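Example 3.
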Amino acid sequence: MVGSEHIEMIPTPAKKVWSAEVNGTPVEVLVASNAVLLDVLRDKVGTLGVKRGCDLGTCGCCTVMIDGTPRLSCLCLAGQVQDSAITTVEGLADGAHLAPIQSCFAEYGGSQCGFCTPGFLISAQALLNENDSPTDKEIACAIEGNLCRCTGYQQIIDSIQGAAAIHRGEVEAAKPASDPHPDPHPEGPEEPNMPPGHAR
Amino acid sequence: MNMSGGYRQQPGGSGQTTRKDGKRVAGKQSFPPPGSGGSRPHMTPRDLDYIPESVGGKEEQPAGSHIHDRVRTGTTVGKEIPLVDSNAKVTGQAWYGDDVRLPNEIIGKILRSPHHYARIKSIDTSKVEALPGVLAVATGEDSPHRFGVLPVTKDEHAMAVEKVRHVGDLVACVAAIDEATAMQALNLFEIEWEILDPVFDPKKGLEDAEEPIHWRGKYHLSKTNVQKRVFQEFGDRSLVEKPLAESHGKWSMAGVHHGFTEPHAVVAHWGPNGRLQLYTPQQVPHYTHRALSTVLDVPMHQINVIRTFVGGGFGGKSDPFPHEMCAAILARKSGRPVRITFDREEVYWINRGRHPSHIEVKMTADDEARISGFDIDALIDGGGFASFGHVTSYYNGVLATAPYELGSFHYTGARVWTNKPASGAMRGHGAVNTRCAVEVGLDEMAESMQVDPIDLRLANLLPPHSRTISGFRITSNGMREALEKVREGSNWDEKFRQLPLGKGIGIGCGFFISGSGLPIHWDPNRFPHATVHMQVDMDGGVTVHTGAADIGQGSTTAVAQVVSEVLALPIEMIHVRSHESDTSPVDLGSYSSRVTFMNANAAIRAALEIREQLLNAAWEILGYHPDNLVLNDRRIYYKHDPAIGVSYLKALHKAQEDKGSLIASGAYRSPPMGGVHKGAAAGLAPAYSFSAYVAEVDVDVETGIIRCTDVWAAHDCGKALNPMAVKGQIIGSCHMGLGQVLSEKMVYGRTGHLQNANLLEYKIPSVHEMPNVEPIIIESCDPEGPFGAKEAGEGPLLPILPAVVNAVYDAVGIRLRNLPLTPDVVFKGIEKMLKEMKIDDPEDLPSPRLTHSPLQSTLVARAQEHKVRDKARQRTEDTSPYVNGVLFGFDPTIPLEDQVEGWRTATEPNPEQLAELGLAGRAWLKKEQREMGGGN
Ligand code: FES
Ligand code: FES
């Protein structure tokens, strides 16, 4: 952008209908034939959870799963992935029930500022889909394309190990706060061993 | 159904609302309780493990008790809990700058300078305006007012007025219906330039220039590019004569960038009533608020600054930025919401990273291995604008005055403008580079005295509740414990100077402010540092309004935690609102590690007010005085019989009877502190954090590649409100500091051009470069911190640099003073050494070994004595005064000036000193314009 020599804009490329299955829902949008997948997802499909950190394939914030494989959406033309199944961070949870990888990132401190988190979640989920007992080294290899400036990665690895344990069925996943849980004692909690007749 | 008593419309009666035949009894309608007492059916018993022993709990307090102990309820403080906004982050719902999409938005783009230094003779925008799809164009003419983060150095414009000062400086901006059109429009500006002579080397900046980058009128230093010069001298300089050991190091440290993952982005929109809504990922929204008001010429109340989620800040999002002004100007012109998002390159053009520095440190130790003198000279490269630089110039010196007791301290600093992107504040602001130089110097002195560097440190520490040589008030101090813990954890005594060639271990310490004692924009006696508002409505949820900007460090969580702790409510009942300047009280924002200390303190005060109202209501219901009541998990009950109690909700509703929702406001202000000399306020803080790290490295002697394998990282954060978050900060700091010491560097080429403005060539450590970090939390229980807490966000970065540099020496026996220690730097160092020692094979290099001198046992004995002294002082069993100088035999009760001839506190050099000043000190050879009779 800096510099006096600017390239004249090439005439606007033709628009095409782009279709894919994003997070389980079929979408069809009109995009330029040279549109980049990241732009299409953010600007047309509206999955703003896919983040743009660099646009150059260097940060991994834009990672999405394409037919099960994590890929950098900033380095991918939309046309290349026509009609594929795309999963973004928005597609990980089952309704309000967070995927284990999501709740573990919260629980183990895998997310500080959170900007890198969507990319890490996708990379990690892709790993766990293949391998539910990864070693720390395998995890490191799976997330080597993702940059995190806040956490120093250690708690991210812990989070992924935590999620792996849930995947293996060793630990139970937490229930979301939005599940109906009517208040059994609307006025407040009971003292467990309260003798009868005392004010609640 | 009878919804139990207590909520009848009219008093009296049995609560029976229906007759036997099913008809309703008139006037006896019952209401369901408005709200709930939370989600769990039973009160959880008091968690004694998280209630301090001083108030009958089981939480140990080796560092003594705290005034907040009595309001501990064992609810959340000290527990590892997820950040309260983490679910937004893991579901992709967190909205960062570029995620704000307003209906009808248009896209703004910025035209940046292609020249390092040039005068703008004319700008022709007619072709831009004629391009279909362009809706607004703005240039410097639209923004004549200056702004800047510090009121004393406002030297920025939204867009260049008169001249551009670095490549990438803002020249003009345009808003168009889409990005492609806006980009195309940037090509159509026609600008006539007059190229000026740029300055890139900060050393050149000290000399008179044809045309200085900025002009400060009568305060301008001759015709140089010096923005700020500092001189400080404390103590007795005669102590440095006849030293037993000396260290003299000249450092050159490259500039580094914050490297946050979220590029800057801003959305501006003038609402229907002519009010500006500005969405921006800001650490310091309030300063942006002020600057916008100045630049746009509208009153502050007409602006609502909305802080979006911030994708990492580290100091890099704490200036009011020109692009924020541009968006507002374009939005005003076009009448539509304007979004500007940076690409990664632009992030580097706006910079504000750590200053490239030339630092010279001379230090001496006397025959008892006491540190008799620190002599620091720091020349820092400020780039094109002042930013936080005024403060940085001080911090480079004054933040080295602790944790050691010094015989004398001498500092000269200068910050110069150069034609590069502006440097600014970055995690560990101003303290990092000198700290590294000083800690390596200590290592070198220990080497020449043949003592263990940890024992040297342990025998020279300032105790808790003391004063530094520059007059800073130290309260809690966990330095000693931190050193002991890392020594033990790393197995130091078995490894230091005993590892084979190529393997090394090193130590480094840190000292940092926990909140700056002076609010930048106002007199601390007139307004508090931080304010928190709180509201509790019928439903029982607590809404907390604070301006604290959560940038990922978890400030929102910290505030929620302390409120939850005081009111004994589950954390999900606390809702923190901190995004909008319309609804949150003015706050200075997230910088200088102030948020936990100041905002949490303010929040505690507000919560205490609410607590009192609840207790009074419970008193009325139960008949027991609040002193005899206990708050625990949504209940208030009689201390001696938990069965006699009332639910939180019932007490709340009682308290609300006459006034509706409960409102409280809490504020924090730091106590009056510090000396009166010029610059005394710089580095002043209500508390300080301390840290000590041991790093272990592998150095490949053939290639010079350094790998840091393990780090033991002890940080004294007073009290870990949320240990998980503290550990995250420690590990994250290690990561960032490792980057600076091993690989990160802003590379300015021969022509002064920034060559690596992207994340590929700007080398941030990836997961593979991360060592195992063992975070060790030290809790020294600060008397004024919230529940004893101090900062944990910046201080932990400092020690990693010197620890690694010292470890490299331990591994291969060379002291390197050019950061970062990239393989080529290390390789050159090894080559030089091979030549000097006439060795061919690097594998034959000797690795440093240590035989203790007799001094070692003196030090160990002194450290032992001091340990006892420190413990008594920490627990305030010993409250005698202690000032820096006692170690040298001075009496702390008499001013040192009266005891020692030659004890000085000076902020300007003596004429006879002028000849011997260091590099930066030479700025003192120049005169200000007013002294030269010129300037305006
Ligand atoms: S935005 Fe795709 S890798 Fe950075
Ligand atoms: S959490 Fe901030 S970049 Fe990873």
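Residues 192-200 of chain A have pLDDT under 50 and may be disordered. The beta strands of chain A are 15-22, 25-32, 63-66, 69-72, 85-87.
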